[in-house]
Specification:
The longest helix is centred in the middle third of the chain and has 37 residues, at 40-76. This protein has six helices and no strands. 76% of the residues lie in helices and 0% in strands. It folds into two domains: 2-76, no CATH class; 85-133. The protein is elongated, with a radius of gyration of 29 Å. It starts with a helix and ends with a helix.
């Protein structure tokens, strides 16, 4: 009965264009048809096995993500420090207090400040902050 339901659902998903569900059911039904007489119990066991495998893969993936984050942090330790959001805002606040008109050309000035401090700039962050100061 379960296998028949999966076959009917597979056909319905084909008609509706749901390729992912069709693919999943095709895989499951393909494994089940390799056995001469698959039962609903076989289908349940197979589905449970697949779910367990996916969950195991996800857990392993989380560990990989952690490993990659650690590698990135390690590699970033070799990069020069970046100006913080606060340092960029302080520079722009000082410019405003001095009567300077803030324009997009301040991107170059922010880069010069960073270079003088032996740092780099996250240009996307600087641009976002700078746009908030534009009059």
């Amino acid at each position: 009965m379960l296998i028949e339901k999966m076959k009917q659902d597979q056909l319905a998903f084909r008609k509706s264009g749901d390729k992912e569900k069709v693919s999943t059911l095709t895989f499951i039904l393909g494994v089940l048809t390799q056995k001469k007489k698959s039962t609903d119990e076989d289908a349940v066991a197979l589905i449970k096995s697949i779910i367990k495998s996916i969950r195991t893969s996800l857990e392993g993936h989380k560990e990989k993500l952690k490993q990659y984050e650690e590698e990135i942090a390690f590699m970033e330790s070799y990069l020069p420090a970046q100006l913080s959001e606060e340092e960029i805002r302080d520079f722009l606040d000082t410019a405003v207090q001095n009567g300077d008109k803030i324009t997009m050309s301040f991107m170059g000035k922010i880069n010069m400040v960073a270079k003088a401090a032996g740092k780099t700039v996250d240009n996307q962050l600087a641009k976002t902050i700078l746009q908030a100061y534009l009059v």
